[in-house]
Design goal:
Length: 470
Amino acid sequence: MSSPQVVTRFAPSPTGYLHIGGARTALFNWLYARANGGKFLLRIEDTDRARSTPEATAALIQGLEWLGLDYDGEIHSQFARADRHRAVANDMLSTGHAYKCFSTSEEIEAYRAQARQDNNPLPFQSPWRDADVDTHPDAPFVIRLKSPREGGVAIKDRVQKKVSWAATTFDDLIMLRSDGTPTYMLAVVVDDHDMGVTHIIRGDDHLINAGRQSLIYRAMGWDIPEFAHIPLIHGEDGKKLSKRHGATGVHEYAALGYMPEAMRNYLARLGWSHGNDELFTTQQAIEWFDFKGMGKSPSRLDFKKLDNVSAHHIKTVDDSTLLRDLQAYASEINAPLSAQQMDDLGRALSICKEKSRKLGDILDKAQFILSGYPLEIDEKSADMLNSVSISILSELTARLNNVTWTADAIFETAKDLAADQGIKLGAIGMPLKAALSGRANSPSGFGMMEVLGRDESLKRIGKAVKSNEA
C-alpha cells in the first residue's frame, strides 16, 4: 500500500507581522511538502478575536508571499470552524472521554494554593471527573478531557526521537470553555485531522503540547500525525530572540534589503544542514531537505553570516530576478523606480552588484545613473577634485578621443597615463569616480564610463574640470 500524500501546514496566530521564527517554521513545512510532492497548507488561528484583525492576517500573508512560500488551496480560518470543534468535544463527552466540570475559578485557585502549600505536584484534580450526571447542577461548566491518571504518555518525534511524560504531568485540559468557545488545544487537533495533515513541523516549545494533543487523537481514534519539533532561534548572545537583538519580523528584513532567495537559504541553515553546504539555491534546498539534517540545539541569529549569504545570492542570481527584487525593495522603502530608471539600472547592474551585500548597496552605487544630472557632490568627492586631479582628468580626456568605449579599453588608457606620469592608478580612478558620480560610494569609474557612454562621460568630466577652474 502506498503512503498517503504528505500534507504539512503553517498555522500562525495573526500578530500583525510574520516573526522570523514563524518564517523558518513555514519554510521547513514548505520545503518538506515540496521535497515530497505534497501539499503545504495555511491556517490562520484566529480564535483570539481581539488580535485577529484583517490587517494582521494580511501582514502574515504578505510576509509569506515576500519570502516566496506559496500555499496550496484556500486559507483556512480556525474561528470559522468553531461548530466543528464543539461537535467533536460533545462526541468525546458522549463516549466518556470527556466530562463536564462545574468547578469555579475560585475553587480551582484554592486547590492550587493548597497544592503549593503541601508541595503537591499534581495539577488540578476536578471532583466532577467521575461524578454521576444526576448530580450535575444547573450552572456554567467547561468540558474537560479525561487524561490518563496512571502510566505514561509518549510520542515519536522525527527530531527529538521518543519523548515521554508521566501521566500525572497532564491535567484534564479544557476543550470547551463555559461560553461554548473551543480552546486552542482542541481546535488545532480537529483542524489538523480534518485537513489531512500528515506531518506537524513546529518549534520545540510546543513539544509538551504534542503530548497533550496526542490524547485527543487517541480518544477520537484518529491517526496521529508525525511530529517534528525544531529548536528555537536565539540571538547572537544565546538568549531568546527579542527586539533587543535587532530585526525580528520578516517585513524588517525586506526593508533592510535582503533578497527572499538569500533569506530562504539563511533560514534553512538555522537548525538544518546538508553536509557542509552553506550556500545553496532554493531548488537545492528542496531536493536535499529531510529530517536527518535537523539539529536539537537552538540556532543563533548571525547578521554577519546573513550578510555573507546575501552577498553570494546577489552575485549569483540571474539579473531578471535581481531587478525584480530591487524594484520591490525600492517600493518597500518608499522610493519607487520609474520604468526609465529600471532600464538604466539594468544597464548598470553588472558593475553595481560587485561587492554589494544588500539590495540597498546596489541602489546606492547606482545613483550615478538613477539620480540624473547635475550631480550632488558629497564632501569626500569634492576633496578629490583638486587642481592636481583635474589636470590628470584633462589629460585622460585628451587620450580618450580615439579609444573604443569599453571599460577595459578606458582602463588601459588610464594605466598608460599613470605609467607616463609616474603616479598610481588610484590617482586617476578616485577623482574619475568623483567626477562621474559625485559620490565616494560608487562603482569603478571605468565601468561607469562604459555604462554612461562617451558623450555623457565626457560631459561630466568636462563639468568637473570647468567647476574647478572657476
